[in-house]
Design a protein that fits this description.
This protein is an alpha+beta fold. Helix content is 24%, strand content 37%. The chain is built from 3 helices and 17 strands. The relative contact order is 0.12. It binds ligand ELM. The site of ligand ELM has 28 residues, from strand 1, helix 1, strand 5, strand 6 and helix 2.
């Protein structure tokens, strides 16, 4: 797994809720690949560092400068959006979500992005040096975009944050957090019986938890045969940056014996976990 350079995207998310003309809140969070590195809660005047390496290679002065820029931005953003809402007759409540970030590539190359969603739909992006509507954006947005593009000072700041600050921060974080990002944590697995899906039927549950990174393969098997009726849940986060997955199989009570749950994960080095259903536990 070592040697080949891997890419880890750095993503900053902003969630802004506008309940009415006076009540709003904005929260921010940042992730390096699967790990949350920063939080910036509504009302808090400072960025919260969630990992010992969350400062990357930025100096205290650089963090102070960045926090100042973001503090001014947060209050300007709220004011601007309230003004746009009046100008464009937008109905409350509404949500705006911003996703911005970058990814460094081998060499000195990097790619950045900034997208804005209104009510969950992508409406605006920052491209190069200008704000642009998303391909299917509603027409009323054009007036807002025209206004936004008049502010050259902001466009220059966004451009420099995306093309300089972001890749510099991301590469420092990557270097400082490398061992945690690249660690391998083995899953634990166990079986249980779920609620009966019907008379003479059983729901077999296979729980897999505590693994990192996220990709995992779990299947109910009969011998070497995959059971295609296997139902896979969503991969859910544990509180400690590991993941959890539940995989179930509905079977006739008489057919549970001989089934097993097989788990493949990068941390296991080919030594799959195999758990056999104990036919005597129920039926
Ligand atoms: C510059 O987000 O307009 C720093 C910007 O007041 C840092 C960005 C970091 C991003 C509307 C209504 C309802 C539904 C949809 C819409 C349309 C969607 C609108 C999308 C909004 C912005 N625009 C996207 C920018 C908001 C704030 C700016 C501006 C603010 C203050 O600017 C003044 C001067 O105008 C400027 O020239 C310069 O002198 C500046 C110096 O401080 O002061 N600009 C900034 O704060 C991070 C994203 C994280 C995920």
């Amino acid at each position: 797994q070592t040697g080949s350079p891997r890419n880890f995207p750095f993503r900053c998310l902003q969630i802004s809720s506008f309940a009415n003309t006076t009540w709003t809140r904005t929260d921010g969070l940042a992730w390096l690949w699967e790990l949350q590195t920063h939080a910036w809660r509504n009302g808090s005047d400072s960025i919260h560092f969630l990992k010992p390496w969350s400062r990357g290679n930025f100096s205290p002065q650089q963090w102070e400068d960045l926090q100042h820029i973001l503090g001014v931005y947060r209050s300007s953003f709220t004011r601007d959006i309230q003004e746009f809402a009046i100008m464009l007759s937008k109905v409350y409540p509404f949500e705006l979500q911003l996703s911005a970030g970058c990814e460094a590539y081998p060499g000195n190359a990097s790619e950045s992005f900034l997208h804005v969603a209104f009510q969950g739909t992508h409406v605006v992006s920052f491209q190069g040096t200008y704000w642009e509507p998303a391909p299917d954006a509603p027409l009323w947005l054009n007036r807002a975009i025209e206004e936004l593009n008049k502010d050259q000072g902001t466009r220059e700041m966004v451009q420099s944050l995306l093309s300089d600050t972001c890749p510099q921060l991301a590469s420092g974080l990557l270097e400082a957090g490398k061992s945690e990002l690249e660690q391998q944590v083995k899953p634990k697995a166990w079986l249980s019986q779920g609620p009966s899906p019907g008379s003479d039927r059983l729901q077999l549950e296979c729980h897999v938890s505590g693994f990192y990174p996220k990709p995992v393969w779990v299947m109910w098997m009969r011998g070497e045969q995959d059971q295609p009726e296997t139902q896979r849940g969503d991969v859910l986060p544990n509180a400690d940056d590991t993941w959890y997955l539940r995989v179930t199989l509905d079977v006739a009570a008489g057919e549970a014996a001989g089934l097993s749950c097989r788990v493949k994960h990068s941390s296991l080095g080919g030594q799959d976990i195999v758990l056999h259903w104990d036919g005597s536990r129920s039926s």
